[in-house]
Backbone:
């Protein structure tokens, strides 16, 4: 029984879309219905440290598994993965790249759950959607990452205020009403005056999100000093909008660039 | 801090590709490096019944979760999901459909693992790739499913012979050599003469793969007769190439068709 | 001097997008800046019979040149060409199909200009844009053509009134004002009461647009009766929304369909 | 009569594909069946100077008409047009850009034919196919143009030898046989020894193809000196592979670049 009679369904309908060369490939994944998922699993509001650490652990696994990912940035239930400019990962086929990234991330999330929530069972399957975007040069990939971090700040600033108000006794509707139309300074003032909180003292992981990359270190896995520089996958919570971080870590993107 | 300065990275680089209307949408997912995965987890060869039942359980969860999936067909570490012709699932956006299907399937696979392998721990994250294909009419969607089932037969027929030979003492290379250039009849003869096995007596799940769909039944969840017909998600291992199955289950595709 | 050093610019950046099989392919072309072009060349308003006949002649040339075009429908400076469902024209590569159709049409338009405007020189190059759309079945291709003909009616009904008003002495602004918010019946009444014109008596080419197809005829090229039926490319101005035309010309789409 | 009943054919099937920002857009058009076209119109072999000048005139018209085209390169019946990196020409919609370029070029070709072939009537419509390709940075756009000029050289070198042989009495088959497997030096030797031709003395337009761009000049349209530098569309036949041309004309791409 030869299959040739039906093989036309592949030949005439399946098309592999390849992404153009010399472009940074970003895969951004995002939790599906995580509002509900975080309620069911009683996540802390506005930020659950364990949930964020789990996300970071998954991102770290991604960099371990896929060497062409040179940088990852995550906030809340979202993570962006940057492949080096000339990666030939699955011959740059869009569907392969998207499906494999989102599937591997999801799988690790499930497997590592117990490490971060030893006393909570998974009650529903966590799952993520994803998309692939190409950026043609260093400026646009920098701006992409800046875009995500600005978004992190805007959302976290708002959510910090919102949940302070709710925890202080307001209804969610009242809290929303209070924050409507407020600017950044208004929020800082509200936090300091009403709650004696300096927003800048909030944990950097909440305010800045998390960056994962291969850092040049002079220590072994236990922190002991070694002679030769080696690359170690690192999670940090630094500002990646201004020039400082990229000045200190030029090699991350430059060694991944074709220019 | 407004985000407008960087938002161009979304506006000018992210594009949502929508799939054309009046097409059946197929998402086919496929295990990544499952050759290795099945070795690590000591799957039976050529077919591990528990691994197949786990795949079927995940497919069943897919139909429970996503009502617009009207049919699924699986074989080995692969599963195809057919969405009804006019589905508006995520406005037919390709990236959303692909990533969500592959992520949800992966997540359920990890969660249900223990049900099917109570004595084996997951030692590596199982993950899948996927693709989306559109088929414009009933004939092409039928032919797509027939293509997969013919493939199931060809592969399983070969693998059954191959592993019989190996288990009988041949090396993998010798087994391969023995089967080189054989036709279907040769394989049947080898099985019956050398191993007293009638291929048709092999389990239908191995020979035919598994179909998942909503069947019209007159029993409740416990098999007791009820008065009104209801739809129950069912797994069967029938021939879906010939006209018989589709004649008996016309409603599956016809109620999902727009014509 | 081998070219291999630079050939990567083709291999890594040029992609041929093929259109899915079993879909009717429509190429719709549309005059660019024809408002200006028609003014410069002093076209009659609202319809210039010679300009429309020139468009029809170009469409006829398209069907002569490209046998896989089975039907064309034109109105004003726009023409749609329907390729048969399973056409392998340029292996269904989108860019080839689009560029060749729009280029050939443009070229014929320039060459035939003198036949329809013997006393007018072309003062600016006429040019067209175009797009390619796939329709997966008979219903959608019928509805596509109906959509264009309804559009033809709506525009021509309005324009007929508008130019009657302008020719009767109103300014363009006043004419526009008069017609604002009017329904079909209002326009018919205006035409009959103010201008003693029965819209249905206007030329069918203006009201219905033009269809080009291979008609089954029993006459030779000079209109003399012949014995065997032959196919002759024909331009007609009939209703293609209702069932009558397609009932009488079932073979046009059915012989071009794969089902 | 509202059109809403049918408008779904646009909404659900027509998609505008936009090209990603920060990419140079190249439209390359290519004569269709120009082998036949050049025979019918008795073009000189291997190069017809008038036919090439006509192509150059059309390219010049393109730069006059579309200011976002910053460079064009042509050889034989092919022309490439480079749009500046951030062009918003038709919102970067691929179908619009492709169809408009190929249509305008075709139209001008027909209209200018008489200027270059005053004694020859067009006997068949000239037409072109086209494609759109994106290049993400200066290096790749340079390499694209180098690729086309290397191709020009390889083809013209071969054709020059081929037609010398044919004109000297060989059949086309014999000429082909003679050239099979020859390297560049072999061809130069054949030309100089057998035909006393130094390939480098052949007209630059044949050997190098034609580049069209806005040059900085200090003369008016009649060649008289003027005080201020102005940009004038210029056709030249220079080497664009090496650094010299681009060194002298840095502004062409740099002013068109976003970086």
Residues:
């Amino acid at each position: 029984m030869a299959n040739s009679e039906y093989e036309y369904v592949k030949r005439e309908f399946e098309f592999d879309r390849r992404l153009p060369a010399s472009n940074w490939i970003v895969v951004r994944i995002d939790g599906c219905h995580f509002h509900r998922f975080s309620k069911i699993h009683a996540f802390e509001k506005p930020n659950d440290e364990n949930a964020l650490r789990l996300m970071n652990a998954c991102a770290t696994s991604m960099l371990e598994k896929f060497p062409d990912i040179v940088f990852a940035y995550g906030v809340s239930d979202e993570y962006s993965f940057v492949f080096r400019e000339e990666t030939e990962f699955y011959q740059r086929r869009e569907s392969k790249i998207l499906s494999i990234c989102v599937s591997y991330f999801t799988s690790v999330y499930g497997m590592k759950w117990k490490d971060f929530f030893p006393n909570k069972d998974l009650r529903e399957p966590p799952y993520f959607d994803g998309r692939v975007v190409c950026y043609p040069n260093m400026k646009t990939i920098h701006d992409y990452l800046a875009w995500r971090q600005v978004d992190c700040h805007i959302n976290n600033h708002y959510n910090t205020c919102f949940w302070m108000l709710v925890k202080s006794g307001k209804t969610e509707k009242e809290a929303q009403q209070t924050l409507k139309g407020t600017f950044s300074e208004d929020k800082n003032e509200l936090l300091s005056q009403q709650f004696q909180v300096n927003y800048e003292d909030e944990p950097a992981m909440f305010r800045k999100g998390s960056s994962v990359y291969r850092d040049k270190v002079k220590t072994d896995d236990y922190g002991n000093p070694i002679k030769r520089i080696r690359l170690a996958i690192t999670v940090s919570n630094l500002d990646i909008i201004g020039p400082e971080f990229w000045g200190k870590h030029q090699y991350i993107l430059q060694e991944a660039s074709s220019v």
